Amino acid sequence: xxxxxxxxxxxxxxxxxxxxxxxxxxxxxxxxxxxxxxxxxxxxxxxxxxxxxxxxxxxxxxxxxxxxxxxxxxxxxxxxxxxxxxxxxxxxxxxxxxxxxxxxxxxxxxxxxxxxxxxxxxxxxxxxxxxxxxxxxxxxxxxxxxxxxxxxxxxxxxxxxxxxxxxxxxxxxxxxxxxxxxxxxxxxxxxxxxxxxxxxxxxxxxxxxxxxxxxxxxxxxxxxxxxxxxxxxxxxxxxxxxxxxxxxxxxxxxxxxxxxxxxxxxxxxxxxxxxxxxxxxxxxxxxxxxxxxxxxxxxxxxxxxxxxxxxxxxxxxxxxxxxxxxxxxxxxxxxx
Amino acid sequence: xxxxxxxxxxxxxxxxxxxxxxxxxxxxxxxxxxxxxxxxxxxxxxxxxxxxxxxxxxxxxxxxxxxxxxxxxxxxxxxxxxxxxxxxxxxxxxxxxxxxxxxxxxxxxxxxxxxxxxxxxxxxxxxxxxxxxxxxxxxxxxxxxxxxxxxxxxxxxxxxxxxxxxxxxxxxxxxxxxxxxxxxxxxxxxxxxxxxxxxxxxxxxxxxxxxxxxxxxxxxxxxxxxxxxxxxxxxxxxxxxxxxxxxxxxxxxxxxxxxxxxxxxxxxxxxxxxxxxxxxxxxxxxxxxxxxxxxxxxxxxxxxxxxxxxxxxxxxxxxxxxxxxxxxxxxxxxxx
Lengths: 336, 336
What we know:
The structure is a homodimer.
Chain A: H1 17-27, E1 36-37, H2 40-46, E2 49-54, H3 64-74, H4 77-81, E3 84-87, H5 91-102, E4 107-112, H6 117-125, E5 129-133, H7 137-151, E6 154-155, H8 162-179, E7 184-188, H9 193-205, E8 210-216, H10 221-228, H11 250-259, E9 262-266, H12 268-282, H13 288-294, H14 302-305, E10 318-323
Parallel strand pairs in A: 2-10, 3-4, 3-6, 4-5, 7-8, 7-10, 8-9
Antiparallel strand pairs in A: 1-2
Helix pairs in contact in A: 1-3, 1-8, 3-5, 3-8, 5-6, 8-9, 9-11, 12-13
């Protein structure tokens, strides 16, 4: 990704609140203001009042359209006309293809050979041109560089990009605007675009809101990066949460070090069982990556262990959960 | 159902607008105001602007909690204390069990032996006491009479009851309040409680809104009743839309004769393929009975054939679709 300027964590200035407000104004007529749903039975299991921001019901089936449309509609006409190139395990690719189609410019998508078929089809349906690569971070980068060199297209990195982070921040902004004084927000973490944006969006509305990242044990680079204080990589991963197989980048690592309270890890079994529970109780389709954000809250004792401050209203904690996407292959469900 | 007073269609006065407003005030703090979702890709398939009222995301997983809670919270303390009895293929039973639990009174539920396991479990989870009967209208009635005689409980019929119809009307009332000037609303029809309520609720907000009932070919009693002008029965049915196996009753027949424009029939294949399309594109779980309401709109030429008046804004027709419920067994999906 040679065109992304390198970032010195220590000097990096994350997107400002004004940039997030501008992003929201730029994209809000194009995307859904997704509903914030509640569930009495999940509240009872978690011992908390849960507010689910349903980005699985977002256009293209995930939050990724927020960042992609903000980035693509930020470009000048001259830049946009060269086309857009990116690499993605699926949802970012679909979002770039969709937003590029809205702007009537070509989208070149590099994606790993093992991406789910349903995500490949979605990109094709939006008119994206796909180049397959090996499912390794290094191969993705090389293929992306190569396509960029051939086409002259503008790179829109899936997360190491301020326009993307500002766009993703609008999900938490809406959640806090709609659900009020949340004590904490939980979001999945992969490359960290959503989680970085969640920090900025939530704390921009209510500074005291805590933010927790949720990550599969089998793809625990964010946990290791924040624990060791050094950016860790993840050369490959086989977690069922196929949207969470990327690693943090300089920008997202810098934001998370400053703003994230803790990373919570979950097992593959916990991911699958949380996904099924949400399908059954809430009647919405979430992909395994979304289930990662609720799975920790369903484990006995976890909510109490977060040491959230007592609420002035004396009630159970009010917790926001971001369901990141809903793109699954309905002919092969994890529990059948 | 001996306690339901018989109704002479010609003299019957359906619930007034004031009764519907009162029902809404009685139940709105207890239930979800369900979201109205849209989908650009389904709009393109239908050639219309579609507004989906998601009662699949309602408490108990269906609209039935609207009528059940209105009926049960309309009772005096003395009546309620005797308990509630009803018969139901599932969703009404769960709703009665849930609303009775909210009011801390017993619920006795008569349901057919072939009801889906997931619906039986839901009733048990709400503390309802189940009596199984044969899957025939006559057996349901006999078993219900029998339980009522034994317990002295108050009968809350699933649809031949003005309190139920007024409660179900609140779904269309909310839909029109939220989605504005809809040209028509589509709802599934079984016993006709939802469809009757949809007529009253939609036309109460906007008198010119047309209302269409949607029904499986394999359970076409409403179609035959409205075509012949005589109440037709349906002794048994094997449609996959397990919520639509009941027949119209005197009250609902009277309302539908006056207010419904037409009944649209759909095949089993059309129901299954519409359900899968909604799961895939909208990322929500609807049961087959819900899919019956969108299935006609996905058939080429159907929207044009409805002869809706041209809109003043010159745009495509604005159509409301009521997704009635989302209770399915996730371990046996119809397409796997």
